[in-house]
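Weekly sync notes, structure subgroup
Attendees: PM, AL, DS (notes)

Item 1: joint prediction request from the bench team. They want all two components modeled as one assembly rather than separately. Inputs as received:
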Amino acid sequence: MPLDSARIHDVPDDLLAAIDYCFDQGWTDGLPVVPPSVGRVKKMLQYEGRPPETVIASHPATGFECTVHAAAVNAVMAGCKPEYFPVVVAALEAMNEPDFNFHGSTASTGGSAPLMIVSGPMADELGMNSDVNLFGPGNRANATMGRAIRLILINVFQMIPGISDKSTQGHPGKFTFCIAERSRDNPWPLLVEDQDYPESVSSVTVLAGGGFCNVENHGGKTPEQVLGSVADAMANYGCITLGQSAVVLAPEHVRVIEAAGWNKTQVKEFLFSQAYRKVDGMKSVGKYRQREYDKQHADGGTHPLVKGGQLHRGLTPDDILVIMGGGDAGGHSCFIPSWSRARSSLMQSKPIGVCIDCN
Amino acid sequence: MQLYDPTVTGPERNFARAAALGDLDGKTVGILENGKLNAVNMLRATADLFEQRHGCTIAPVYSKSNASAPAFGETLEVAAKNVDFLITGLGD
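Output from the run, pasted for the record:
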């Protein structure tokens, strides 16, 4: 049942006029939306077992609350099918964890966007793309679920570009930033397995992601060569901070790494050990801060791989999320830095459509 | 056609401004820095002006652990006991 208190707008029975009405109300991300008719919202709500007035996320500064109903309205506007809705809800619940800090990561000049990574059987069940053109257009589930999160930030939490979203430049992922982890021909345990969720459960992981950095390497024949180029991207002067990282390895790169018998733990440890800048170098570009160095090096360091005189990206290898994604052909992986040099947002995950250890 | 409104109504908040100080002369000024690169420098320079112009005493610096989140309540409680007014800013 819809909320009695939900506000309803009567508009003419003209779809194009209704789309224009949504533009006029300031309810869009700049692109046309699906008008949130009462019937479509009701269908969306059928995929959530909790009452529509249930609050699933709250803005810590303004007190705005996102109910199941409000999320459903925006999911309709984004173009989601009803069966996508549990993913949107789970992503919001992950973003609502205090350590994700969705207010800061959205409002900041840093200009991040919530990167959603769906892992597990639901990715295929929903027809998500984990393959060719992973971050590009062409897949309804990827495109609309990520867009729903942006519309909720704009409409429910009033994170309005230019007003309360003060991104200096932002990036295209602020329209939508949602991918699936590729399971086909993946030699490693999936992310959802690493997260220790029960078998057959899927998860969504959110990371306040900065811009996308392509890592091209068609000549690397060893893990050290391939991952060396990834680590170099992670440690570029523009990106290096104590923040977390998402690394999406192309199947072609994974094949090189797996052929040498490396597992994901080895990949993370290699990347962490190699993604660093020397203190003198950090000083040369004006980015060195003693406070950050001390945070990484005090009391023997945050990890045995931390070396004196070097500032590594992140605090430990587990600050690097590694998955496989993309098409079979091409030596193109990517690195996505987390927002905030001070680790003000940490990635979070939630199971999709199920409640584990809930009261 | 009936459309649901995708926005929500904000909660009513009971915030009230603190009473303004009658004057600044001889008061203790606190600094709440947010950890940004130039925050302490900028706020210290501002506090120095209060010292020069109004004879203010500058209290020890209070810090936020996260620039984009509210200060811990305990930090503000301690500051409230020790200063007459607090200055803060971004300092990026």
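Discussion: Chain A has 13 helices and 13 strands.
Action: AL to compare against the crosslinking data before next sync.
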